[in-house]
Amino acid sequence: MFFRLFRRVALSAVVLSLAQASWAQPAPDPVLPLAHVDNGPNSPAAQQAHYVVLVSLDGFRWDYARRDGARHLLAIGREGVSAPEGMLPSFPSVTYPNHLSIVTGLYPEHHGIVANTFYDPARQARYSPRDPETVADGTWYSGVPLWSLAESQGMRTAALFWPGSEAEIAGKRPTWYVRYAEAEFTEAAEQARIQKAVELLKLPPSQRPHLIAIYLSDTDDAGHRYGPDAPQTRAAVLKVDAMVGRLKAAIDKSGLPVDLIVVSDHGMAKIDPPWITLGDYADLKNFQTEGQLLYGKNEEDRAKLYDELKHEAAEFKVYRLKNVPGDLHYDSNPREGDPVIVATGAYAIRAQKPPAGQADEPPSKGGHGFDPRIVPEMKAIFFAEGPDIVPGKTVKPFENVNLYPWMAHMLGLTPPKNDGNLNILAGTLRDNGGSTEDKESTTPQ
Fold first, then answer.
1. 220: burial class by Cβ within 10 Å (0-12, 13-18, 19+)?
2. What range defines the domain where residue 116 resides?
3. Pairing mode, if any, of strands 125-127 and 118-120?
């Protein structure tokens, strides 16, 4: 009898386990095909932790929300914390480097993604977001992304098209993620990311991700194509604001302890043609080039090019790699090239013209990549609200690497050494970030 009872109980447990396993998979969606990694259930400690939903609005300039009346973002700022004068992106202020800086707490030269497209002299290979193989190859990346940190500490995560999230980095991938090659760049796909985040928050506690990172590109697309001040860009601002509002309403309805954080990777500046082409000032035949990055074959060539370019144009400054100003944190990784070109304003700089026979298109009407201390239009947004955040707080501009230890603290995770500092934003946390004194987050870093 005991054996029969044990067998019935065991069978019931198997059935329950299978049922729970079926619940753990969000509904299939051809617009947003989620890849799944079986990282196991949330640990008991992770199940007690709060949740972080991190949203990146690509190219959303620091002043867009107030300029265009983005009511949902502004409401989050009133209810929680915001940076009215913007957040400082890492240099260069472009998409892939900054998305990795936000989730690793490392400057680009330390996490390794030093530009959207670049050359690695040691590997003799090129990294490009348009190449699915390199994007998904974790050996290109350094540091421990927030999702890898969480997964390694027993907490499940999801990354809905966050740059770099499909690679196995520091031994982990998110439990749910989107492969770049399968992603769609449509309004339906962006709406699907919001809906999928809502579905993930409805999973059972053992499977529910405590970190969900979401990427939306509308404002960047519009800013490049039409310019930051165009009506199409203003419309994109309100469109993504409405998506954030929809997400916020769903989070509130869930009753879960969720900290909602909305940031951008960089801003957007108006670009006036023409191109500034470095090849017009010096002979680059001995250089590998990517965008404006320059990779010399030997020290003699690098020194010669530096001498040829250093007094050529007011639109840029040229530095040997080791002498790039320290506040750019861009002076030690060979992937950055040598010499290094730094624009002195919102100028479209490239190394070479297109090859003969290819059309030479004018620069985009809007652009980024510049030093935010020189071109303030590069500053990004920061809005956050939730149970861990002091309401009605404002902070002065701070570097985005400081988000990493701050978010790790909210999730109860122990981060590795990084370039961020929890004390910079400690004053925004209800528990003050474990700091021994009430440090207002008003000092830029």
1. buried
2. 36-269+375-434
3. antiparallel
State the total domains in the chain.
2
β-strand partners of 341: 318
Angle (deg, nearest 10), helices 403-411 and 95-104: 40
Residues 263 and 285 in one domain: no
Cβ(292)–Cβ(341) below 8 Å: yes
User: Which has the closest alpha carbon to 308: 274, 278, 330, 269?
Assistant: 278
From 319, 337, 363, give the residue that closes a domain.
Answer: 363
Each residue's pLDDT, cut to its tens digit, for the chain (445 residues) gives 333 333 333 333 333 343 344 445 676 676 788 999 999 999 999 999 999 999 999 999 999 999 999 999 999 999 999 999 999 999 999 999 999 999 999 999 999 999 999 999 999 999 999 999 999 999 999 999 999 999 999 999 999 999 999 999 999 999 999 987 666 777 888 899 999 999 999 999 999 999 999 999 999 999 999 999 999 999 999 999 999 999 999 999 999 999 999 999 999 999 988 999 999 999 999 999 999 999 999 999 999 999 999 998 999 999 999 999 999 999 999 999 999 999 999 999 999 999 988 999 999 999 999 999 999 999 999 999 999 999 999 999 999 999 999 999 999 999 999 999 999 999 999 998 644 333 333 333 4
First to last CA, the chain: 70
Task: State the CATH number of the domain containing residue 353.
Answer: 3.30.1360.180
Does 13 reside within a domain?
no
Q: Quote the CA–CA distance of 372 and 363 in Å, as a whole number.
A: 20
CATH code, domain carrying 399? 3.40.720.10
Q: Quick one: 139 and 161 in the same domain?
A: yes
Asked, for residue 90, whether it belongs to a domain, the answer is yes
Report yes or no: 287 and 303 within 8 Å, Cβ to Cβ.
no
Q: Which of 313, 335, 363 is the last residue of a domain?
A: 363
What one-character DSSP code corresponds to residue 90?
P
Buried b (16+ CB within 10 A) or exposed e, 121-143: eeeeeebbeeeeebbbbbebbbb
